[in-house]
Structure formats: C-alpha cells, structure tokens
Known about the structure:
six-stranded mixed beta sheet; alpha+beta; Creatine Amidinohydrolase, Chain A, domain 1; Creatine Amidinohydrolase; 3 domains
Amino acid sequence: MIPERLQALRAEMAKRGIDIYVVPTADFHESEYVGEYFKARAFMTGFTGSAGTAVITQTEAGLWTDGRYFVQAERQLAGSGVTLFRMAEEGVPTIDEYLEEKLPEGGCLGFDGRVVNSTWGKKLLGIAEKKNGRLYVDEDLVDIIWTNRPELPKTSPFILEEKYAGKSTAAKLADVREKMREAGADTHILTCLYDIAWLLNVRAHDIKCVPVILSYLVMNETDCIWFLQEEVLDDTLKVYLKENQITTRPYQDIYEYVKTIPATAKVLMNESGVNYRIRNSLANGIEVIDQANPTELMRAIKNPVEVDNTRAAHVKDGVAFTKFMYWLKTNIGKIPMTEISASDYLEERRKEQEGFIEISFNTISAYGANAAMMHYSATPESNAKLKPEGFLLVDSGGHYYEGTTDITRTMALGPITDEMRLHFTTVCRSNLNLANAKFLYGCCGLNLDILSRGPLWDMNIDYKCGTGHGVGYILNVHEGPNGFRWRIVPERKDSGTLEEGMITTDEPGVYLEGKYGIRTENELVCHKGEKNEYGQFMYFENITYAPIDLDAIDPDEMTGREKKMLNEYHAMVYRVLSPYMTEEENEWLKHYTRAI
C-alpha cells in the first residue's frame, strides 16, 4: 500500500518537474497534534506517531522522527520502502542537510506552503537557491492521490466562562494590543490555535483531545477579525462575538485578506508558527516584526483562578486514577485484563467526574516491553494481556472545565526483578528531587533538569526526551515556553524562564527496548518563595494526587531526605483523596500511601 502511494506521488511530482517533495506532520497552524484531514505524512509512510517528516525523491523516501518514536517507527516502516532517519543520532543528517545533498543543480523542491512554517520555508528557499533551483509550494500533491481523504473538522465551539478562564476576552484583547504597541506593530496575525482559543475564551473539538477550533485571527488597534468555518457559530456565539467587537470571515479567506494589508503596515507575527503561504501573501514593503505571540507567555502564566481551578481538576483526576489503580492492583490475575480494557476502565472513572470534557491525549497503556516505546498506543493487534507480574505503564490525562491533567504511573502487577525495582526507585528519586527544587528567579528548565536526570546518569542511563513540558489550560497538553530539558532543542521552544503560575510536568523514566519502560509523572506549579539579599527564590507545588507504587520501591536505595519527600507526598495524597473514596478504597489507599 505505501509503495503504491509513493509511486503515485512520484508520478505527480514528475508531471510538475519536482525532484523532492516534503510532507511534514502539520496542519495550517503548526499544531502539535493534527486532525485526520491533516495526517498526510502518516498516509504516505504508514508511521502514525505524532511527530515526523517525510521526504520523497524519485528514488528514495525517508522519515525523520525523534527518540520517542524510534522503536515504533522501525516497526511501522518495515517493508514500506521508507527509510528511518533517527533525529539527533550521531551520523544522521538533518532534513535540511539531506535536502541540500539530494537536490540536483537547478532542481525543484516542493511542499504545500500551508503546512510549512515561514521560518523553515525561507530555509528551504535558501537551499533551492543555492542549487539555482526553485520551490513549488502552491499545491498539495498528497491531496491529489488521497482519494478518500477525511473532511476538514467542523465542530461546535463553546464559550469558556470567566469563572473558569479567570479573565475576560475584552481584557485579554487589551493586553495584546498593549504588547503590539510595545513592539511597534499596528497589525497582528495570529494563527496558533491554542493562542486563539485562549484569547477568545472559546473552545471546540476540531482536534481530538485538543479543544480548539480551526481558525486564524488578525487584529489591529480597532478591529479583530476571526477567520473560521462560520457555519459552526450559533446565536449565543454570535452575540458573544458582537459584544467583544469581533467580526468573522470564512476560514479560507485569510489568504486573500492578508494581501490587502497595506504595504506601510508593521505586522507582528511569529514566523515559526505562521505558514509560508500567508507570509508570502503579504505585500512587499511590509515590515514584519518576527517574535513570539504575546499570547504564548500570557497563557503559559496561569492566573490565580486558573491555578486554583487546575488544582481542583487534579483532585478529580486523582480520584479517578486512584480508583483505577485500586481496581487494577486488587483484581489483576482474578479477572481478564488487557492494555485496552485497563485504559477503558480508567476513562470511565474520569467520565464520572463532574466537569469532565474529554481525555487530554490518547492514553498510553503499555505492558511489559510495550512500555519501552515512550508513545506506544495499544491497538487490537498489539493489545497485550495483563498478567500478575511485571510492570504496566499508564500515561493519561483529562480536560475538565477546571483545567487539564497529565499523569503517568508505572505499577507492579506482581513479582518484578531486582533490576526493575532499582530502576523504578531511581525514577521515583529523580521525580522527587526535581519536584522539591528551590531556585533563584531567572532559571529555566535547562538549569534544573540535572536534578531529575542526575540519578539516572549516575547509572549511565538516559531517556531520549525532555524531563517535562508546560501544560495548557483546556488546550494542548503540551505548551511552551516552559519545560525541563538538559540541552536546548530549538524546535521544542521550551527553554523559557520559569515564571510564577507556570505549570510544568516532571516525568523522568527508564526505557529498555524489549524489556520494560518506567515513567513517573506529576505536574508542578511554579511559585515565588522567599526574597532576600540573594534574589527572588522560587519553588514548585506538586498538584498531582495519586500513589507512587510502593510495591516497586526499594527504600534502601533512597536517602533519608528522599524517603521524607516521598512520605510527605503520600501523606498529601491521602489527605486530599480520602474524602472521595469508599471505605475499602481508603483502607487500600492508606496502605499505598504509608510512610516508609
């Protein structure tokens, strides 16, 4: 199937004189996760991970993806004719290096200009010009051969009331206009779906597990124009938009509209997020102020209402997850269980919680060796039966009206080896060390990552991903500019200063291919601590409430301080959750949060 699709695409490339065609994992907005309509890379290669880029020549096809997906990609690409390029591995060329090597003199490099951002598009133009070649960007060739392509998503939006958002749309628009003035801009083009949803206090379901609506927004000092599929608006939304002086236009009209922006305009936009076609549609002479959208930092720094709400969401989520963990631990080996049935049981517990909207990403329920794939997704073909032995790793979360959650627990279903126990305990230590950090204001995740990664590095072990990511507020579960990472990865955009109100995950792990995977993940809110002659100190509040499986802990591998941190965490978990549990569940919870 994949070889036939590659052959069909190459035929379309040949008709247009295209030597190389690039198919990224992207929609028109540079979203991390995309709807079914936009899964062109998966269609062309068979690789279904959330991150990756396909490059097709007339004789070769390659797929670039990161360390989270190496195992999965190798399996899914087998026999497809697509070669896996392991990003950031020694000796592996970057996509740009590969393109520069393979593009012939005078050649043509093609891509859909709507799914490549302006920053990368300029680099690709530079590669083509270096070879005295050209770009072909005004046509989506995959669309031509994808005969049963899904429709563009079109779901009903809803207003996020101020009691949840903590700030009105009018106030947010005023804040953005102030930032525009500070930047010297008179016009702002906003294409990031998370930013638009946050700014307008509107959510929808156009991307599975990401409550956003496909749209663009252009604003100046007096006007705010929202480009969307207008037929989804009901009377309530129309009144709300009129009250906030927001006008609407059809979704696709953005490309013609930006051509009408005067050549004297000063346009604020993030070129690494705005697609190449929009940027190229601007009139010559327009001054582009290329910087992060003001809304990015605004939505990353949760206001007090959002922080309080998110804490409440985590209580609900902790109740759901802990009831699941109780069920799992007390029934394993007694009733049939699989990865999928366990995941389904957990989702049902979340659905019981008031204010639940949907899960915040596809649950990772991975047993045994499957958990060595960081972003494994159980399918009917891979669905492993759970046995009363080894580890089950469950990474899951939910969107509630009060906020978004993301939690991972690895649970011993029965006997485990000494190696597994050592690795589990070390991951727990890593998680606790970071969660209990105190640091001076001005630090970013780069400064603190060693606290988590250090215990594993002491064992010559590492994990091929960041230690943590920012979490959106009923938006994408991953957001910048905050994160924990040992080195700067420019495309991740998560090396920003840690600010009060930011929420970041803490999720170290061990992944041994063919054996098992371990991850322990909590969410941390950044707060201001003491301020003295040395500066402003900061600390984290742990807002994830669920036991860390003491059945897999070796207390002898922990320092006195680490045992104290774990005991204090578990005491908090019991205090927060026990009012919501049954008598039997509480007896179990008391045992699994006992002091060691």
